[in-house]
Specification:
By secondary structure, this protein is of the alpha+beta class. It has helices spanning 37-48, 67-70, 99-111, 113-119, 125-129; strands at residues 2-10, 52-56, 60-63, 89-96. It has a 4-stranded antiparallel β-sheet with strand order 1-4-2-3, covered by helices on one side.
Length: 131
């Protein structure tokens, strides 16, 4: 998966990109203390087949099917920091590459890891060990 920053963009209560925070296991818990917030939000976007996503206020995750068209609706801002947005500011990213293959890989490594290890005793250790 190749992810590139598109910049920092304003947001309002009428979200430029709808939030998905708290809906998926990778983006649950207190978002401002989330480790690897960008990578986790990218993984959720990729799993959903979305090319663009935003990270706001140091970890809050937003993505949608139309995020690549809507992220800039309120214009640019300089309120982002550390690549993880700011108050009412999204650091927006675009995913390049094959989403279908990446989503399949995500499914195997994130969702199937425990079930696959239990069903197939010959699952490679690298798959069993991933968290």
């Amino acid at each position: 998966m190749d992810v590139k920053s598109l910049g920092c963009f304003k947001d309002t209560g009428r979200r430029a990109i709808p939030g998905v925070d708290g809906r998926y296991s990778l983006v649950k818990g207190y978002y401002r203390r989330r480790a690897d917030a960008i990578k986790k939000c990218a993984s959720v976007a990729m799993m959903l087949g979305h090319r663009c996503f935003g990270v706001q206020h140091q970890g809050w995750c937003a993505t949608s099917r139309k995020a690549c068209q809507t992220y800039g609706k309120y214009g640019r801002t300089n309120r982002c920091k550390n690549g993880k947005g700011g108050p009412w500011a999204n650091d927006v990213y675009r995913i390049y590459g094959e989403l279908a293959l990446d989503a399949f890989h995500w499914l195997l490594t994130r969702v199937c890891k425990i079930q696959c290890a239990l069903i197939n005793p010959f699952t490679p250790k690298s798959v069993k060990a991933q968290n």
